[in-house]
Structure formats: C-alpha cells, structure tokens
Amino acid sequence: MHASLKQYLDGKIMLSPADEEYVDCKFKPRSTKRNEILVEKGDTARHIYFVVKGCLRVFLISDAGNESTRFLIFEGRMGTAFPSFINQRASVAAVQSIEASEILMLSHSDRELLLKNILGWERMERVGIEQDYIASIERIESFLSMDAKDRYAILLRKSPEIVKRLPAKIVADYLGISQETLSRLKAKN
Amino acid sequence: MHASLKQYLDGKIMLSPADEEYVDCKFKPRSTKRNEILVEKGDTARHIYFVVKGCLRVFLISDAGNESTRFLIFEGRMGTAFPSFINQRASVAAVQSIEASEILMLSHSDRELLLKNILGWERMERVGIEQDYIASIERIESFLSMDAKDRYAILLRKSPEIVKRLPAKIVADYLGISQETLSRLKAKN
C-alpha cells in the first residue's frame, strides 16, 4: 500500500492484509502540473483526491472572472468538489493543482465499493465528515462574527502553512479580504 | 414510535419492530417555552434535538452582546450545537427555542448506542451529515461570492419559511446583513 495512504489510514481503521491490497488498488496514482485543472466548473467531480505531495485548491469563479478559494487540500488530506462528488451533479466550484502534485484518485463507484465491502470504512468516513463539517461550521462562524484581523489571526494559528506557502492572492481570497488588507495585517504580525 | 420521528426515519433506514422500540425509547420528549435556552454558550451540548413542532436556533453572541444566527432547525429536522455535541467540548454557540416547541432529545451516549446496535444507523448518519456538510459549503460559497441581494434571493428560494416565519432581526443576522438592508430587499421583492 502507498506509504502516505497507509499513514492516513493508521489509527482510523484496522485492515487485514487482503483489505489493504483491495483498498490500495482503488486509489489510482496521478502526477499533476502546477495550475493544472482537475475539475472544471460545470463538470461533475468523478473522484475524491488524496494528496501525497503538493496542494489542491477548490475555488469559485464569478461571471466577472473573480476567483474565491473555498477549500485547500494539503499533503496527507483528502478532498474534492464535495457537493458535486457526493451528489454526482455539475460542480459550482473548480479543482486545481496549485503546485506540481502527486495524488491518489478514488472514483465515486470505487468509494461505494469500499463503503460496502470494507468493514469499518463507513464509520471512518462518518467520523471524518463530521470533522470536516465542524471545520466548515467554524468557517461560517468566522464570516458571521469576525473581522478581517480576527480571521487572519485564527488562520495563522490553525493553518500557518496556508499563510507561509501560498501566494498572497490565494490567502486573501480564502479569507474573503483584499490583498491590500492582507498586506497590512501581515505587516502588523 | 413517535409519529414525526417515524416519518423522519422512513425511507432512510429499515427498522424491525424491536429496533423501532429501542430507537424510540432513546429519544426523550420535552416541551420548551418561547425563547428558552437549551444550551448556554460555554456549556457542552449533551443532546441532539429532533423538532416535532416549533423551531430551534443555534446562535453566536459576541463579547459586545451582538447575536448572529448560525443555524435554524425546523419541524422534522435534527440539529444541535454540532461541534460541541460531537467533540463533547464547551460550545461557542448557544441553542434556543425561538417558539414554544415540542422536541425529542437524543443524548450523546444514547447516540453511540444507536450507532453500535442498530444496523444501518451509521450509514444513515453518514449520508445525513454529508448533506448537512454540503449545505454548509453552499453557505460558505454565498459569503465568499455573493452580495446581500443574491443571498436573500437564494434564501427566499431554498428556505422561504425562514423569511416568512421568523422575526426580521433573525433573518437579517442569518444572512449576515443589517435589518435596514433586509427591509430594502424585502420591499423590492
């Protein structure tokens, strides 16, 4: 089994050697280039992605061409254009590899097979989605009740890799603030 | 089994008569008064609530005393201060019954028993939480990429009961806009 995937699953689920092999063969490796688009807006997201190396971005594009970053998927994490993948409908968001990346792709139908055939997969997914949902609730809270300064301070504490590693433009639109405001906040910290 | 709960579970899970009885006895009925607080900010949410009649509100209170409505739970739906309930930690949000309500309460430990003992409960919860997570992603999208007018139009289309039934103050803070902006939008529609 791919070492990063094994590390991800360790502690979340107990797999027999046969199960490990079955799981491993469902995740298809792929290398992506910097800025490569994996899911276009309007397409259906056919896969969920596990990031071995690099970083993926899920983002919105307005009719005027403005982008807003909804979600970032770093090494050792899984993600996709979730509403599109789960309900197999056209995606509002696009998915892009913002660095040259190594990913493992699990298709929608293979995920159904894992849910059906691997004891404990359902539980692992339920627990994982609970925590993803909690993270999104906390992000909604930050939009409802915090200003740009507080949102930046929390991002710096919870996900410093976003601030350190990504272009200012992406950090700013992830926070829903302008690049000028971000520069001012960075200068103060 | 309570008729509303039976209706909620129909189509989501197949239960034997014995299972039905087991599930039913885990949901404890309670009547609440208008504006009664069920979970205080800083408490741990011990229950998830199924609303038979009425409406619950999950909301934030800033240090300055300003409220923002994070989530509304209407008849036939379940909800709570989710991050607090799932991780059994102090809640950032409070839960209030904004109308006199009839609710059924499932405790954290009884939920664990249902997950363990009722075949299909895990799957039902996983599928339910996926859809709740999708709804929260769509709300994040609305904050990232829409103005007040678009957010109001979508609320009117997706959840007209929120606009019709609740006080303007709650509708406005659910949308993250002022009451004045809401009045202007209502006048135009």
From TrEMBL, chains A, B:
Organism: Mucilaginibacter ginkgonis
A Pfam family the protein falls into: cNMP_binding
Protein name in the entry: Crp/Fnr family transcriptional regulator
UniProt-listed PROSITE patterns: CNMP_BINDING_1 (PS00888), CNMP_BINDING_3 (PS50042)
Transmembrane segments: none
